[in-house]
Amino acid sequence: MSVHSTQVGPKFNDVCARFIGTKGIAEAHYSRGVFIEGENPWDSGVVKGEPTEEQRASGAFTSALYDSTSNKVKAFIRSVESGNLINEVQSGAASTLSAILGRMSATSKEKTMWDEMFFFGQKYNPNLNLKQFE
Fold this sequence. Notes:
5-stranded antiparallel sheet
């Protein structure tokens, strides 16, 4: 598996997770569709690359997440109205800690265990200017 993204540069391009297996390759792009190439091909139908004029006119989707924001807003409102509150704290923390674990392992070029990460005591200063919010 590999993940590709743009973190620094003049504009946002794409984020892609590529999964390579014995029977094919699957790619999940943030802004250019999801598809599988290989023995069992599949395509999400989201436009890959720049859409043609015909695709634009037909309303073809140019993002795998074209309606994600509106769906998240609707789900949040429903959860508040119903009292069945959405709590993504555990999955968000697990995701963030997984990224930190991966970064530690990549920068040290060594296998890193969860306990090593938890008790490492690393401090990260993002140099945020919090005065701007006063």
